[in-house]
Structures are given as C-alpha cells and as structure tokens.
Amino acid sequence: MSNSAALEYNSSMSDNKTYEEFKIDGEELLAKFKQLINEGNVRRVIIKGKDNKTIIEIPLTIGVVGIVLAPALAAVGAIAALVTECTILVERTEK
After folding, report:
1. How many independent structural domains does the chain possess?
2. What is the pLDDT of residues 18-54, one digit of tens each?
3. Which helix (H) or strand (E) holds 39?
4. Does residue 1 form part of some domain?
5. Could you tell me if residue 2 is inside a domain?
6. CA 25, CA 1: separation in Å to the nearest integer?
C-alpha cells in the first residue's frame, strides 16, 4: 500500500477545524506523519490502535520544526514498529 492510499478516510468539520481520519498499516505510519507535518495546517495528530484506543496524542503548533519534533518522530517510529494497523486522527485549522 502506498503512503497516499488510506484503507479508510473520514472527514468532518466543526468551528474552524477540520478532522480527518486515516486507517493505515503500521509500516506507513512514520511516512504519513512526516507528510502531515509538512502540510503545515495540522494542529494535532492522534494515533489509535486497532482497538480504537489512543496510543499517543501529539499537539503541533505552527513553526515547530527540526529538533523540537525529534522526540515525536522517534515515538511515532517506535509505535510503527509495534502496530500492524492503526488510525490517524488529524485536526487541521482553516488557513
């Protein structure tokens, strides 16, 4: 499965926020997380396991780059090694 393809995709809006949900394989998790960070308007990423329980919630702010994201990337990489399938819930702000 490619990084851009999601098994399931849902989207909803409330206030000035948009929520998207992607179901992907664990091996694609880190690449998808990096892609979301590069898009720039992501405020929060929540990673859930197969059982829909939250594994990690990562708040992102505008301008967070480099060394500040290193611990988050390491955590997402570790999670990717442990899960076979997961859900990424993305909170975006309108530009």
Report:
1. 1
2. 899 999 998 899 899 889 888 878 889 999 998 999 9
3. helix 29-39
4. no
5. no
6. 8
- Structural domain range at position 29: 8-93
Give the distance from CA 87 to its chain's centroid: 8
Residues contacting residue 26 through CB under 8 Å, at least 6 positions apart: 79, 80, 81, 82, 83, 84, 85, 86
Distance CA 8, CA 57 (A): 20
Nearest to 79 by CA among 32, 19, 13, 44: 32
Whole-angstrom distance, CA of residue 15 vs CA of residue 65: 27
| Cα 27 to chain centroid, rounded | 13
Coil, helix or strand for 51? coil
Q: Can you read off the two tokens belonging to residue 33?
A: 């997380």
